Amino acid sequence: MLYIEHKFKDGSSVKQEVVKKASQLGQRFEEKKGARAGEYYLIDQQGHLQIGDKDGVITTATRVVKPPIVKYLGKSNLVF
Asked: How many Å apart are CA 27 and CA 79, to the nearest integer?
């Protein structure tokens, strides 16, 4: 089973059971019960999260890429 959890500023949260659907655009997830407005979540080929409904994309959250952690261990010894 797969779930998406929405967390709110007041500390409350809501969990939705989702199913993965086939998509040429990336990994698409829809509410298992069947959302009335056709809401979906899509992780596209670049790793960005798109939230949409039957009318199209509502918003896109850009993937955050963290720089690698580099440790200096002495003369010319770098560990990535």
From this structure: 33
Kindly report the pTM of this predicted structure: 0.69
Contact of 53 with 39, CB cutoff 8 Å: yes
Q: Which helix (H) or strand (E) holds 7?
A: strand 2-7
What gap in Å lies between CA 68 and CA 76, rounded to an integer?
18
Domain definitions of the chain by residue range: 2-69
Report the Cα 11 to chain-centroid distance in Å. 20
Spatial contact of 51 and 43, defined as CB atoms under 8 Å apart: no
Output the tens digit of pLDDT for each of the chain's 80 residues. 899 898 999 999 999 899 999 899 999 999 888 767 788 999 999 999 999 998 999 999 999 888 877 776 666 655 55
